Amino acid sequence: MASSAVDVVARNNVTIHGSGRPIVFAHGFGCSQDMWRRVAPHFAVDHQVVLFDHVGAGKSDVTAYRPGKYDSLEGYASDVVEIVEQLDLTDVVLVGHSVGGIIGMLAANREPSRFAALILVGPSPRYVDTDDYTGGFSQVDIDGLLDVLDANYFGWSETMAPVMMGAAEQPELSDELNESFCRTDPTIARHFARVTFLSDNRPDLDDVTVPTLVVQSRDDVIAPVAVGEYVAKHVAGSKLVVLPVTGHCAHLSAPDQVVTAIRDFLS
Amino acid sequence: MSTDPSPSPDTGYFEALYQSAPFGYLITDHEDLILRVNGTLLAWGGYEEHQLVGQPFRNLLTPGSQLLYETRHRPVLGLQGTANEMSLQLVTAAGPTLPVLINAASVLDERGNLSEVRIGVLDASSRVSYEQELRAAQRTAESLSARVAILQGASAAFATSDTEALIAQILASILEDALVAAAVCVALVNSAGELEVVAGTNPLDVLIREESNRVGNAVLQLERPVVVGRSDEDRKQYPLVTSALREARLHCVAVFPIMNDATPIGVTAAFFGRERSFTSSETEMVLSVARQASQGLTRMRAQDQLAYAALHDQLTGLANRAFVRESIALAVSSSANTFRPVSVMFIDLDGFKAVNDQLGHREGDAVLREVAKRLSASVRAADFVGRYGGDEFVVICHDTGERESAAIAARIHREIRLPYPEAEGFAVSASIGIAVHEASHEPTTVDGLIGAADAAMYESKRLGRDRTTQVLL
């Protein structure tokens, strides 16, 4: 047990601060646990703050990446369950941003006995529009995202082929291509983008049994208010808070408001 | 151009530098709303200043670029204070998109809060479109070479595999990698005409096998892939499969036929944790790998059939003389190893020659087939029945001494004596000789056992037929 606990901690670069009720923060697509640096410290005074990186992000172990496993959000959710189990956490508050919220929700659906509250910041259960649902994007838009992703990661590199073929085996290359914040492995990011923006987790909203708060930005092109309302409507007994902020990352642009919303909900 | 090194240029000079700089320049507030934008950017986009001021900068981006800008660039800028060389696509008033490179730097107020963001925009259309073409070409080449590698790897792996299970296992693991599937299983049509999982993992409950096979049979019939997912129609048509998928935290299963030329010989099912659709080239790749596997599988079946034919009698389906002798050799050595007795029974039909001579070979053959059936039904499951030639049969009974072999022989006599519908009015019976070899006795040989059983059979004939004679060896 002890050795596998070490593995999970290293795999997801789990970091722990403070003590008290456990609060686990799950980051979204495009960044790493760095995303929480303006919110998480506020909770370390009276909580056990658990931060981690999804495999492929931050300082996670990219060698743990298995395409088949991470071809769905369930693969990421099973990692969250493993973290919570290895640390033997109960009464867990899970705060997830964007797709991190959906991943946290799937984890809570698997192990509801360990989770006591879900806080979803800017969640979207499905990005691509259907006949009777508006996610805000089309398949063409997602293809466009993959194109700009490529342009950002590979645009200046003269060695595109080796990077694309095996960045996971050449960490020095991916290091060089990444900023010091929000490090992500390019190959995995590409796959994570497809998994994030092409998944449909609407049916999973019905399965949530944990008390849930949806924190919604007033103006967010990625997860518009209508989507936040949809989530709140389909998660039984959930609460919706619309913050007067713009952009998809309220926890960066308006951390105090996010902290207050979470504390109000938990108290 | 100017040679006048003006020591203190007026604000008009800086205004001109700003407005007509060889790059776009704009300033946004902490919420990404545009405060100022220079003439160059307005000209590139075909916008009027009043159209942009007060709008979020992200609204100038294509949806795909908005996704990356909001999920990655803004966080990096927020955390790091700068975000450089971001490649994005601007939307122009006229419609076409403009690829740009963007550098952004945030400016904090005295309390450390973000007050504004300064953004420099470079026209990157020639470079980006060149890179895009390069990437597109690279992708095509990569996916082609990946496909060739998959097919070559598959063909090499299939060629060196010597069992049906191994070929199916290789097919499953190749497709799991190629399709990035959560799991893949392979089911082949067995001799009873039913689909049977032979390799890989089937994450669905075995209790719903009947409905799973219904999906598989639909694929066999259609001879093209079928995807079962979460749609209402799928739920109606395959309620057990769709709920089992949900139970297993899967979103869909794609089932592809394994075709041997024009004949479907099985299916392969790939399971996914999210909705997946397949391009025609992906589907073609799967079908080609499956086709390659089918060649290996049918080769294996042909070999199995040849091996079977070499050891079995065509008329009755029983083991033939060669197989009987091989089995007696095995029985002798196993008797020596386990110190248990073995009995070999030699059976010759009485009255069969008359059937053949008077009714013809067709009826004679029918009687032989019926005898083979009755013999197999009279012995125990572990006993071995073979046709030694003509109307001679052999039964090998492992771990069997005098008393038990005599009891088995008695059952055989009863069965063989019963009338034959194909040869009404003809009496057929069996003369049996049994050689019982006790492990404590002198070692014996195949010929020794067969010879002794044959001689005992002749003794039964001599004593009046339709009886058993035993000898101990």
What's the shape of chain B? rod-shaped
How far apart are the termini of chain B?
121 Å
- Detail the poorly predicted runs of chain A: 155-179
Strand content of chain B: 15-25%
Fold-level CATH name of the largest domain in chain A? Rossmann fold
SSE string of chain A: HEEHEHEHEHHHHHEHEHH
Tally of DSSP helical segments of chain A: 12
Write a structural description:
The complex is a heterodimer of chains A (267) and B (473). Chain A has 267 residues and is α/β, with parallel strands linked by helices. Chain A contains 12 helices and 7 strands. Chain A folds into 2 domains: 2-126 and 202-266, Alpha/Beta hydrolase fold, catalytic domain (Rossmann fold, 3-Layer(aba) Sandwich), CATH 3.40.50; 139-194, no CATH class. In chain A, 42% of the residues lie in helices and 16% in strands. In chain A, helix 1 (2-11) crosses helix 3 (73-86), helix 3 crosses helix 4 and helix 5 packs antiparallel against helix 8. The longest helix of chain A is centred in the middle third of the chain and has 16 residues, at 139-154. The radius of gyration of chain A is 18 Å and the shape is globular. In chain B, helix 6 (164-179) packs antiparallel against helix 10, helix 12 runs antiparallel to helix 13 and helix 13 (361-378) packs antiparallel against helix 14 (402-417). Chain B has 15 helices and 15 strands. Chain B has helices spanning 11-19, 39-45, 49-52, 63-80, 125-159, 164-179, 209-222, 232-237, 239-247, 280-311, 321-338, 352-359, 361-378, 402-417, 446-462, and strands at 24-29, 34-37, 82-91, 97-108, 114-123, 183-189, 195-200, 226-228, 252-260, 263-272, 342-350, 384-389, 392-398, 429-437, 468-472. The relative contact order of chain B is 0.06. At the A-B interface, helix 3, helix 5, helix 6 and helix 8 of A face helix 4, strand 3 and helix 5 of B. Chain A: Residues 22-254 form the AB hydrolase-1 domain. Chain A: One of its GO terms (molecular function) is catalytic activity.
